[in-house]
Amino acid sequence: MKTLLKGGTVVSGSSVFEADVLMEDGKIKAVEQGLQDQEAEVIDVSGKLLFPGFIDAHTHFDLHVAGTVTADNFETGTKAALAGGTTMIIDFATQYHGESLHEALENWHKLSDGNASCDYSFHLAISDWTPSVSEELETVVKEGVTSFKVYMTYTDMVLGDKQIYLVLKRLKEVGGITGVHCENMGIIQALVEEEKAKGNLGVSGHKNTRPAEVEAEAISRLLKIADLVKTPVIVVHLSSGAGYQEVKYARERGQEVYLETCPQYLLMDESLYDLPGFEGSKYVISPTIKKTTDSTRLWNAIRKDNIQTIATDHCSFTTSQKAAGKDDFTRIPNGMPGVETRPALMYNFGVLEHDLKLEQFCRLLSENVAKLYGVYPQKGAIAPGSDGDIVVWNPDTKWTISVENQVANVDYSPFEGTDVKGKAELVFLRGRLAAENGKVVLEKTGEFVPRKPYMELY
Ligand code: URP
Ligand code: ZN
Ligand code: ZN
After folding, report:
1. What is the pLDDT of residues 92-134, one digit of tens each?
2. CATH number of the domain that 398 lies in?
3. Atom of ligand 1 nearest to the CA of 284
4. What is the count of structural domains for the chain?
5. Which residue from 334, 336, 339, 410 has its CB within 8 A of the most atoms of ligand 1, so it is best to mutate?
6. By CB atoms within 10 Å of each CB, which of 33, 118, 185, 204 scores lowest?
7. pTM as predicted
8. Does ligand 1 have an atom closer than 6 angstroms to the CB of 282?
């Protein structure tokens, strides 16, 4: 099967150029001006931007957490991804206590294989560090799971400093890289006790118990541990200017630190937690959404290429699931949807309103992600030999984000009513048209993508 995209503007991480793109049997065959092919289906894409399929390296589908399970599973979550232009997600296969890493991976394969509409891969979240888990890591990496997550908070997931040190050391030996959820658990617990003693059990308690210092302290501690081990780390879902400052210090010391942030930390502010009634529960995520001054610092860092990737931390719960915390903010399941809207939000607010270059947008949502997580140039590039994952982007389409038009299995959109310009008009997954104007037209052809060890970004 051959498809020829004619007359578009191709965007890569380093250039923007006019070229036709020929796809054949799932792969990109040629990227040149003036291509002809009698056998190909020809699609006129003049006036459109062509991006390599976007990759969201931070989703939680089918995750059992806080006594419930996320509203989006692999079926609905990957459809939502595809509808918005994301052709690959990397989900967190999570080791529940007492499980081996291979049991966790088997669970995630059972949940995803045959159900996914976009391509997918797994990080492994380690919650139970034992000698046999340490042993397993070598084979896990060889099997193509080359990135890991450790949590510095959450009672079910947390690893202590000693364990984090040991994980980093072992992953350095076997060629894995670690993403870390940085928040100081002890301080959060103390602040929760103080808040409850004051009788504040409402949503604003969530904000009050997770100030920026909670993130900054944990980042600083993590980076000291990583410095001892002499290994790179990824700080995932960075939310604060104070946290970013700690990364700057570490980089000045010569450390290799990668940063991921998410649209909610760039486009929202903490006043949402003070909305009347229980409305603020929709935004209960961890780390919390911080102040406008934090977002400004993150935007500045993005513009200077000091943040490498933008993901979503899609971890959706319906409003009735959120209601579990109606009388106690600590019982609100943490997380919100995002996988569907990241490209449109970042195009509209990043490229159009915050002066991001198209190349930067491409790096943040696709090319850097592919490199950092070991799938470049199979993914993250429009080049001969790469997978035919292409987003035909209409830069002129104006639309409004709403629960009414979303694919994700949630009864609200955190960005309800937001007007944006720019939309994924056609989405190709390995050469086949898979989504059109926000609607999925090809279901459940997503494949597991084994990954190589990470590639240095600088
Ligand atoms: O609130 C969030 N972000 N929930 C998902 C789990 C995590 O920490 O990434
Ligand atoms: Zn996290
Ligand atoms: Zn997460």
Report:
1. 999 999 999 999 999 999 999 999 999 999 999 999 999 999 9
2. 2.30.40.10
3. 1
4. 2
5. 334
6. 33
7. 0.98
8. no
